[in-house]
Amino acid sequence: MVGLRKFFFLEKEAKTFARLSRTSRRQPCKSFLVLFLKKEVLSVLVLGLCLASPALAAPVVVTSAWARATLPHQDEGAAYLTLQSKSGDTLSDVSSPEAGMVMLHETAQKGGMSNMVDVDHLYLPAGQSVALAPGGTHLMLMDLKHPLQAGDTLHLALHFEKAGTQNVTVKVLGVHATGPVP
What pLDDT band is residue 2 in, cutting at 50, 70 and 90? Predict the structure, then answer.
């Protein structure tokens, strides 16, 4: 209702402006209403582009997504995949309905021992593939709702700073698997 009042008010002002232009014998300018409507349309277009900016970002290509099956009472697992972004992006968070928490881990050697270190985010350089693989950077699935069995599927939501959220289905391979068969 306010929009209609605003429109009629502006239309009345535009008519008054046009009448004053005629009485003063000046060349009539563009109607105030036409100028206002052009400004409103432009504002809506700019707002739409701003809101759609994550949708306009190049998607991240996800390949070779797999997880290793877990033992019957094991409540932690790991998932691996390869990511590639044309324009560069950052993986900032990962979630899964099958796990209470998904953490990004990196395996680091310290004093001859392998340790897992939490990583806050993973930068994806433009045009380069980044592999999350056993013995390196990987996704640690914590507090699994049920054991992962070979043949199952796992659902991950990958949250990127530019590309937004991408949902990925991950195939669960055997306990001794070293990766998907090409």
Answer: very low
Handedness of CA 179, 177, 135, 172 (dihedral sign): positive
Q: What token pair was written down for 153?
A: 């599927």
- CATH numbers and ranges of domains, the chain: 2-56 (no CATH), 61-173 (2.60.40.1890)
Q: What share of the chain is helix, strand, coil (3-state, %, to 5)?
A: 25, 40, 30
Length of the chain: 182
Q: DSSP E strands: which ranges in 29-176?
A: 61-68, 77-84, 89-95, 99-110, 113-118, 122-124, 129-132, 137-144, 153-160, 164-173
DSSP 85: B
pLDDT digits (tens, 9 = 90+) for 100-136: 999 999 988 888 898 889 999 999 999 999 999 999 9
pTM: 0.69
